[in-house]
UniProtKB/TrEMBL annotation:
Membrane association type: Multi-pass membrane protein
Domain MrpA C-terminal/MbhD: 635-699
Keywords, sorted A to Z: Antiport, Cell membrane, Hydrogen ion transport, Ion transport, Membrane, Sodium, Sodium transport, Transmembrane, Transmembrane helix, Transport
Keyword Ion transport: yes
Protein's name according to its UniProt entry: Na+/H+ antiporter subunit A
Main subcellular localisation: membrane
A Pfam family: MbhD
Annotated ranges, domain MrpA C-terminal/MbhE: 714-789
Sequence similarity: Belongs to the CPA3 antiporters (TC 2.A.63) subunit A family.
Length: 802
């Protein structure tokens, strides 16, 4: 394992160790102990900047080479940008959480365990080159984010938000897995780099579009694109450090990463261009409109995150046009990719600071409701400054970094109307119009966050706590991010060549060697700048009249567009249907469950035998039936009839044992002593167990049923007997596959150094099966132990109460 692989799994290793040393370090805040990990990783990834400017770093580690699944890590401009965000914002969030979460009130071991598992998952997603490895890390992000969102599990809304995010993102992950499998079928490779190299061949395959749609479903669900955006606002029930990390810089950006990474493969299709562009621009508009309706600061930031993610997604869709030209010297459409990458970086800085600012306001005032807040600028001047920088950057006001990427966004939307491709010159005019309207609402909700919270009159009678400025530990992380917001706004070219250019080259591999990025704060009177003037002018008017039009958009949204309500209704009917079906099936009688299983067995086996033409009998090679066989069969038949009609439980137990011992004689006659011995042991144990529980069985008279010849049990019994007989007879002459037994005979000793073939198969050839069976038994044992422990604890509490 290389150090690069170790860098990915290091947070996970630390997460496993946290519960072990937490017990002996309770006097120290756990955050101080784990803070060095993301800081070290951030510094380590900084060393890759010169390397990514020259090309990608590729390190491979074999995992399952026979299936083409290897843990291959690729550090190029795109993955490095995300790795720096994951570790850099992760370091600030970890430091912030030390002052936000008290060591006496919170379960810190759980929090940092979940947080560092998530960090490993995100690093694995952005650095993996293998599709299957990427998918494993992808689902790990869903699981760890579920745990983080539901961290305060005693709150019903936290559990609701965690479950909602889990269901939606896991659904998207499964769809994306289907897309990955289709890509493997088309390319015969799991390597992303190899698949992209074969893009020209793959694009002509009939599975190309289905694979694209499935991959996009995974990206859209994770990045909260309409209509899958509904999980993100409810995820705000998580602690603020979680929101600042997951929903500004990491988890929601995972879908953005997938779209950017697969752009070289799918951008050749007009379906990709229009799907990504329209979904992105729709999400931008819908998120910004809904943000203006909310009163909770975190809810406003949640919908603002949705809108900003839509902006980046729309830019990636528009930038796909750049791959359709042989020469990209004019950089007209590549500028959309540059704007996407630049805004991705900018959004992480100003949105991370805003989430932390909201956490400070909530922490120091006890509320996030803007109807209760106001006038905090005089009481919390540093927090107000952070909010001013963050909100004005999000609104696209100079001289902050958000202004620069927003101008590039407007310019890209205008340029797309001149594109003679995919009918963009006609329908493409909708993109800049919707983008401008959405940006107006973006300006409005940004002003709402700042002015409603920090200007006006203080309302101490509405605040649960007396407001005061936050401690330095809470202020330092958002101050650092605010410095980036201002610094990159004034000096954007500091990151242009080392960070943005390699990332853009990773998304658009065909760029010329002369390609360079130069960003200016002043770029003249352009259509983009005029659009900004219009946004500010109209935005100010809408902000000043907000209280008049807000009720209208709050109540006039059609019910058909309330996707969150649709989700709730769907979950309600699904739960009700599951409950009714469960109550119908789960009667409490084992005999009923056995009837279900036997019915399914008969239907499946009969269907398989009929449709596979397996009914082929050949009696020439069978052993002749002797008198002894008839006698033993007669004994078994007599005992069977006796069991069915017996009214005494002890008689039934004895007859059942006699039948089992008689069957073992068949094995002896057929020269199968191992089977005979096994049968004898099983029958003996069964009889003993029956006798041991005999006293605890219910009264026979309470469940007595008179045998009926024409009953369901009769048909099931005959059906199972007939099916087993047909399978046994046809197995002699029906073979679908070559026998594998010879392989075990030839390789048991050579490969596993064992002479007992059965043991070798169980331990070596089927080692994973045995391991998982052992794991299942271990889990069952733990569950039984837990139930016994809880029962004893409850009994002890009852005794104390008495």
């Amino acid at each position: 394992m290389s150090f690069l692989h170790l860098a990915i799994v290091l947070p996970f290793i630390v997460a496993l160790l946290i519960p072990l040393f937490y017990r002996w370090t309770k006097q120290v805040h756990t955050g101080w102990l784990v803070l060095p990990i993301p800081v070290i990783l951030f510094i380590y990834f900084l060393t890759f900047i010169p390397k990514t400017m020259d090309g990608a770093t590729i390190v491979s580690m074999p995992w399952i080479p026979r299936l083409g699944i290897n843990f291959t890590v690729v550090v190029d401009g795109l993955s490095l940008l995300f790795a720096l965000l994951i570790t850099g914002i992760g370091s600030l969030v970890t430091f912030y959480s030390i002052y936000y979460l008290g060591k006496k009130k919170e379960r810190l071991s759980n929090f940092y365990t979940f947080l560092f598992i998530f960090m490993t998952a995100m690093l694995g997603v952005v650095l993996s080159d293998n599709l299957i490895v990427l998918y494993l890390f992808w689902e790990l992000t869903s699981i760890s984010s579920f745990l983080l969102i539901g961290y305060w599990y005693h709150r019903e809304r936290s559990r609701y938000g965690a479950r909602k995010s889990m269901l939606i993102t896991v659904f998207g992950g499964l769809m994306m897995l289907g897309g990955f499998i289709l890509l493997h079928i088309m390319s015969d490779s799991f390597s992303i780099r190899a698949i992209i190299r074969d893009a020209d061949v793959i694009s002509n395959n009939s599975l190309f579009i289905p694979a694209m749609i499935l991959v996009l479903l995974g990206a859209f669900t994770k990045s909260a694109q309409v209509p899958f955006h509904i999980w993100l606002p409810d995820a705000m029930e998580a602690p603020t450090p979680v929101s600042a990390y997951l929903h500004s810089a990491t988890m929601v950006k995972a879908g953005i990463y997938i779209v950017a990474r697969f752009t070289p493969l799918f951008a050749s299709s007009g379906v990709w261009f229009w799907t990504v562009s329209l979904v992105g621009i729709t999400t931008l508009f819908w998120g910004s409109l809904n943000a203006t309706k909310k009163n909770d600061l975190k809810a406003i930031l949640a919908y603002s995150t949705i809108s900003q993610l839509g902006l980046i997604m729309a830019l990636l869709g528009v930038g796909a046009a750049s791959l359709h030209f042989d020469t990209l010297s004019d950089d007209i459409y590549v500028m959309a990719i540059v704007a996407a990458v630049f805004h991705l970086f900018n959004h992480a800085t100003f949105k991370g600071s805003l989430f932390m600012m909201v956490g400070i306001v909530d922490h120091e005032t006890g509320t996030r409701d803007i109807r209760r807040l106001g006038g905090l600028m005089r009481i919390m001047p540093i927090t107000a400054t952070i909010a001013f920088i963050g909100t004005f950057a999000m609104a696209g006001i100079p001289p902050f970094n958000g202004f620069l990427s927003k101008e590039m966004f407007f310019e890209s939307m205008v340029n797309i109307t001149h594109l003679q491709l995919f009918d963009a010159s006609t329908w493409g005019v909708l993109l800049p119009v919707v983008a401008w309207v959405a940006s107006v609402f973006t300006f409005v909700y940004s002003m709402i966050i700042f002015f409603k919270t920090f200007t006006g009159k203080v309302k101490p009678y509405l605040l649960p706590k007396k407001p005061h400025e936050a401690p330095f530990g809470l202020l330092l992380p958002p101050i650092i991010l605010s410095v980036f917001v201002v610094g990159i706004g004034l000096f954007p070219n500091l990151i242009a060549e080392p960070i943005l250019e390699p990332a853009v080259r990773a998304i658009v591999p065909g760029l010329s060697t002369d390609f360079s990025i130069h960003i200016s704060l002043w770029h003249g009177f352009t259509p983009a700048l005029l659009m900004t003037f219009g946004v500010v002018a109209v935005g100010i008017v809408l902000f000043l009249t907000h209280k008049y039009w807000k009720p209208w958009i709050t109540t006039r949204v059609p019910k058909a567009l309330r996707i969150g309500k649709t989700y709730d209704n769907g979950m309600y009917y699904l739960e009700q249907g599951s409950y009714r079906m469960t109550m119908f099936i789960m009667t409490g009688w084992l005999r009923t469950y056995l009837n279900y299983m036997l019915s399914a067995f008969i239907l499946m086996m009969a269907s398989v035998m009929i449709f596979t033409q397996a009914l082929d009998f050949n009696f020439s090679s069978m052993t002749k039936v002797t008198v002894v066989d008839f006698v033993l069969a007669a004994v078994i038949l007599v005992t069977l009839v006796g069991i069915v009609f017996s009214k005494s439980r002890i008689t039934s137990i004895i007859l059942l044992g006699a039948m089992g011992y008689t069957i073992s004689i068949f094995f002896v006659i057929s020269r199968a002593p191992d089977l005979a011995l096994t049968q004898l042991i099983i029958e003996t144990i069964s009889v003993v167990l029956y006798l041991l529980v005999f006293y605890h069985l219910p009264q026979f008279s309470n469940i007595e049923e008179k045998p009926k010849w024409l009953s369901m049990k009769t048909f099931l019994s005959i059906g199972v007997g007939v099916i087993i007989t047909l399978v046994s007879l046809s197995a002699y002459n029906t073979t679908f596959y070559d026998s594998i037994s010879k392989y075990y005979v030839d390789n048991a000793y050579v490969e596993a150094a064992g002479r007992n073939i059965v043991n070798v198969i169980l331990v070596d050839f089927r080692g994973f099966d045995t391991m998982f069976e052992t794991a299942v038994l271990s889990i069952a044992a733990i569950g039984i132990y837990a139930m016994i422990k809880l029962r004893l604890t409850k009994r002890g509490e009852n005794d104390e109460n008495e």
